[in-house]
Every structure is written in structure tokens, then in C-alpha cells.
């Protein structure tokens, strides 16, 4: 009988304690009744377990798609699992990300950089809950680093393009011969002299193992139009037989090469435009070099100077837009890169731009 009353007393004591224990919203819980998860997964009309599995898969997929295996780690043969810890806050953001276990070679920092990018890129969380109340929860995530044998080529839209060589692709006679070839074979459309149309077309050419030259991509940075693009294609394909084909593993292989072609009007009335364009090109290169050297404001100023001269030059816009993005100036990046998309009609920006522009609206 004594044992029965003692057990009953312990039961009511535990029950009363559970009923009165308050949820501390300032505390970081190591585990919660309802663990945090990526918002999209939490919205699924399914079981809690399936939601959690979805959240982990989404998070790991994002990490592995963005983490960069450090060159130093590859060279040292460093492999293993990095463990990261971060706090999911009640406002759907994360904070206090840190490395719990590192394997060296810069792997921990590489993984941490991706976690720290979750907030700027807008990955939202459904916060953890204790007794139905949102609370801060600490979470661990493992990131595996495994060195894989990288093939010496990429496959792009069905084309095999080598990126590792025993002998690199080269224009016969070198850069000087290439420049001379383009000066003779690149024709400026006569109609362009009326408006002094000027700009650069960049062609990514594929030189096959048999020497055949094909067009992979083309960027008309100043939106010059079809006449200029046709001339760029004609000059590129005319270079068949002018290349020393790349080699790998004792055989000739396909490789890509970028050809930049400046279209400059030949009319005497356009001399001032040509001079202005050539100066803007030099200023833009100077701006990029300054920015890359750590002189951000000076670099941006030079790129802006080039754009003041030619506001619709996608090459200048792309350089400044990426600089703004690096500086987390999302409004500037959104504006510049949106113009690039309009001019070049590129698809790479379809997923990136909405995220950048959303960040600009929230700031």
C-alpha cells in the first residue's frame, strides 16, 4: 500500500510540473517537440516525419550544389565530414552558425560560407515549437567532402568540350595572327555607318577534333542586331583550318575558344564615337581591375564612368552588377543584371534574378 501511494504521489508531482513548466522563448533549445524545417516542406499536407526528411534533403541539396571543395584540400587528399551548427530563430532566419567538427584544408570554412548564405538567398524556415509556441532551436548538419575523379571534359547540350589538355587549342601563329585574321575577315555592315552603331560581339567557338569550327554561344553586348551577328558567325566559321587542335591523352579533342569582335563604324563622321567607345572599354577594364584589387569604390566609379558613356552595354552592366552583388548592394545588382537579361536574352538569370531583386525589396 505504501508503494502505491508513493507511486501515485510521484505521478501527480510529475504531472503538475509538466503543466506549470513555462516555455522560455529566449532560450535556445537543443531539441524541440516540433523541430525546425524548410518552410516549403513544412507546408506539405503529410506526416511530420516526411516533412522532416524533405527539409533535410532540401537543405543538403542546396549545400552540395553551392559548396566549393577547396583546392588545398583536394591537393592534400583531405576527405571526411564537417559538422556545422546553427540556430533557427522564431523569425524564420538562422544565426550563430559555427563549425562543430572540421577536417582541415579549408573544408569547414567552405561549408560554413554556404550556411551563412542561407539568409541572403531567402531560404525561409518554419521555426521549431515547444508546446505549440515558436522557439529558437539549435541544429547540426553534416557536410561530406569526398574527392571524386573529375573527367577532363564537360558535356554541354550534347557537345563534349574538353577542359584539360596536354596541348591547348591555339590559333596558328598566335594572338597576333588571330587579330590579323579577324581584321581581314570581319566585315562591318555598311548600313551601320548612318547611325555610327558600335559594340562588341563575343562568340564561343567549338573547334572539333577534325578542325571543324562551330558556334556554341554568342553574346551581342550592345544589341547590334542580326546583321552584325551574321558577320561574327561568318568570320568565325571562316577560321576553319586556322587552328592547332587541342590534344589530350595522345589524341585530338574538341575544345572551346572565345572570340571577341569589335564592330566599329568606318565613316569619318563616326570617329568621335569610335574614340569614345575605345576609351570606355579601357575605363571598364581599369574599373574591374581596381575592384578585384580590393578598391571597391574606385572600381565602381570607373565602371559607372564607362556606363555613362554607353548605358546599354551589357558587358559593362554585367561587370558592375556582379560587383554590386559581391558588395550585397542588391538594388544595384538587380537593376544592372535585369538590363543584361533584357539585352542578351539569357536564361541563366531566370533563377538568380528573382532572389536578388527580392533581397533588394526587403532592404
Fold topology:
Layout: H1 2-20, E1 28-29, E2 37-38, H2 39-42, H3 48-66, H4 71-76, E3 80-88, E4 94-101, H5 107-116, E5 125-126, E6 128-130, E7 133-145, E8 153-156, E9 159-162, E10 170-171, H6 174-185, E11 199-207, E12 213-220, H7 226-237, E13 243-244, E14 247-248, E15 251-252, E16 255-263, H8 271-292, H9 296-309, H10 314-326, H11 330-344, H12 349-362
Parallel strand pairs: 1-7
Antiparallel strand pairs: 2-5, 3-4, 3-7, 6-7, 8-9, 10-13, 11-12, 11-16, 14-15
Helix pairs in contact: 8-9, 8-10, 9-10, 10-11, 11-12
How would you sum up this structure, described in words?
It is a single chain. The protein is an alpha+beta fold and 363 residues long. The protein has three domains: 24-145, Fusion Protein Consisting Of Minor Coat Protein, Glycine Rich Linker, Tola, And A His Tag, Chain: A, Domain 2, CATH 3.30.1150; 153-265; 273-362, Alpha Horseshoe (Serine Threonine Protein Phosphatase 5, Tetratricopeptide repeat), CATH 1.25.40.10. Helix content is 44%, strand content 22%. The protein has twelve helices and 16 strands. The strands form six sheets. Strands 1, 3, 4, 6 and 7 form a five-stranded mixed beta sheet that branches. Strand 3 and strand 4 form a beta hairpin. The longest helix has 22 residues, at 271-292. It is globular. Residues 1-19 have low confidence and may be disordered.
Short summary:
The chain is of the alpha+beta class and about 375 residues long.
Q: Which class do the helix and strand fractions yield? A: alpha+beta
CATH fold description of the largest domain: Fusion Protein Consisting Of Minor Coat Protein, Glycine Rich Linker, Tola, And A His Tag, Chain: A, Domain 2
Helix content: 40-55%
Largest sheet: 5 strands, mixed
Label the CATH architecture of the largest domain.
Answer: 2-Layer Sandwich
Amino acid at each position: 500500500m505504501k508503494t502505491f501511494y508513493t507511486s501515485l504521489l510521484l505521478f501527480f508531482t510529475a504531472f503538475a510540473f509538466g503543466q506549470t513548466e513555462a516555455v522560455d522563448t529566449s532560450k535556445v533549445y537543443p531539441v524541440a517537440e516540433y523541430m525546425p524545417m524548410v518552410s516549403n516542406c513544412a507546408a506539405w499536407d503529410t506526416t511530420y516525419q516526411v516533412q522532416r526528411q524533405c527539409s533535410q534533403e532540401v537543405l543538403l541539396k542546396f549545400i552540395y550544389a553551392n559548396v566549393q571543395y577547396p583546392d588545398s584540400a583536394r591537393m592534400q587528399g583531405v576527405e571526411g565530414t564537417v559538422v556545422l551548427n546553427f540556430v533557427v530563430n522564431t523569425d524564420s532566419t538562422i544565426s550563430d552558425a559555427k563549425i562543430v567538427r572540421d577536417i582541415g584544408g579549408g573544408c569547414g570554412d567552405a561549408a560554413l560560407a554556404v550556411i551563412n548564405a542561407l539568409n541572403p538567398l531567402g531560404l525561409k524556415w518554419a521555426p521549431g515549437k515547444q508546446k505549440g509556441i515558436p522557439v529558437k532551436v539549435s541544429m547540426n548538419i553534416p557536410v561530406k567532402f569526398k574527392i571524386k575523379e573529375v573527367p577532363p571534359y564537360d558535356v554541354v547540350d550534347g557537345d563534349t568540350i574538353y577542359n584539360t589538355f596536354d596541348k591547348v587549342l591555339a590559333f596558328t601563329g598566335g594572338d597576333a595572327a588571330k587579330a590579323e585574321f579577324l581584321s581581314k575577315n570581319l566585315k562591318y555592315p555598311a548600313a551601320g555607318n548612318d547611325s555610327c552603331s558600335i559594340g562588341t560581339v563575343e562568340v564561343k567557338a567549338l573547334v572539333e577534333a577534325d578542325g571543324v569550327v562551330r558556334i556554341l554561344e554568342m553574346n551581342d553586348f550592345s544589341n547590334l542586331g542580326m546583321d552584325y551577328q551574321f558577320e561574327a558567325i561568318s568570320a568565325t566559321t571562316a577560321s576553319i583550318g586556322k587552328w592547332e587542335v587541342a590534344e589530350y591523352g595522345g589524341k585530338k579533342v574538341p575544345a572551346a575558344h572565345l572570340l571577341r569582335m569589335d564592330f566599329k563604324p568606318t565613316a569619318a563622321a563616326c570617329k568621335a564615337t569610335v574614340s569614345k567607345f575605345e576609351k570606355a572599354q579601357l575605363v571598364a577594364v581599369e574599373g574591374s581591375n581596381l575592384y578585384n584589387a580590393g578598391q571597391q569604390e574606385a572600381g565602381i566609379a570607373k565602371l559607372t564612368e564607362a556606363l555613362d558613356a554607353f548605358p546599354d552595354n551589357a558587358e559593362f552592366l554585367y561587370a558592375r552588377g556582379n560587383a554590386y552583388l559581391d558588395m550585397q548592394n542588391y538594388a544595384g545588382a538587380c537593376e544592372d543584371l535585369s538590363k543584361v537579361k533584357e539585352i542578351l536574352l539569357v536564361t541563366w538569370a531566370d533563377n538568380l534574378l528573382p532572389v536578388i531583386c527580392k533581397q533588394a525589396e526587403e532592404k
